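Per reviewer request, we include the raw input and output of the structure prediction for the construct analysed in the revised manuscript.
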Amino acid sequence: MAILEIIMMGVGTGFISIALEASKEDLPINAMLGSICWATYLYALQTFDNSLLSVFLASFLISFLSIYLTRRIGKPLQVYLIAGIIPLLPGLNIFYMVFGFVNQDSKAIIENATLTIQILAIIVLSLVFASSITRLLKRLNFTKKRSGN
């Protein structure tokens, strides 16, 4: 069942990439990033039984892969990052939050709004960490090459 989920998440990410106007050569890459993201999330969720940690690990990996692809292929980071992180976005929590507004259920509103903000903050933090680590590694590598001359 998990394999089918991962494949469907990749296909869905590919279709979303079409809506994001990704080029034809980027569609398979974006679909693969969506699959990798969801597979990482599911594996981490099964291993650690913590959804927020799973979101962090999956978005951290996708951030690294997106930065690598950006440097390797030369396209903007957003081409790969946005599509890769789509599976982690808390759409269901936002739906339940709005449903809480309609039903005037303040408990549901607060719970889902809090969880949505936590998930979005974790995604942003993982991107900042991945970017910082990548820059640090690039500087260390540059320093080694420079001092070796």
